[in-house]
Amino acid sequence: MFMSRVRIFAALIAAASVTAPLQAGDDAAAVEAENSRIDAAVAFAKALTNGATVALTDEATDETTRLENFRVVLADGLALDTIGKFMLGSTRKTMSDEQTARYNAIFPQYITKLYAEQFDEIVGKPLEVVDAKELGARDVIVRTQFERKDNAPIMVDWRVRELRSGDRKAIDIIVSGVSIMLVKREEFSSFISINGVDALLDRLEVEAVA
Fold this sequence. Notes:
The protein is α+β, with helices and mostly antiparallel strands. It contains 7 helices and 5 strands. It has one domain (2-207): Tgt2/MlaC (Nuclear Transport Factor 2, Chain: A), CATH 3.10.450.710. The protein has helices at 2-19, 24-56, 63-77, 80-88, 97-119, 180-195, 197-207, and strands spanning 127-135, 139-146, 154-162, 168-175, 178-179. β3 and β4 form a beta hairpin.
């Protein structure tokens, strides 16, 4: 998925260059701006990893406190509103105000718990940036790997978005080829079609604290 998206993006750039070629000065400025966005996204991914590691390996606190501190790190680093809406898809347009309020209240706890389970594989392991490329006007995909002594490296792709405010947030973290966003979007859709929105909300409220 990562490579196919990159190829599509590269093809669009190539087509644009044929119809509207850049002047040398503009080209240099565009390359510099792109490199700056990529560097910022790489720095963001590293900082998020470091913050998660500190939170989850703090031996001065108990497991509950470590998880809560990790949730704070992720809540700051993830675009929770964007991710939450994506996972609901078109369902969110038909939800009542009460259902939306319940979802918005429980979703941060639910999603950070899922990411905590994925981060357990990479916490404390050295991060190596393998590649980083722009994807669209605001996103950068940062491909990283975490070395393990006796096993193959763990591959992690970070999709980092520059918000209109100028802040950067992760809108997806793909660990070993698995995107929680995509998996849960399909799972939510299937569950709602059979059981309804309220049943999904009941389930999320249970699983978030399980």
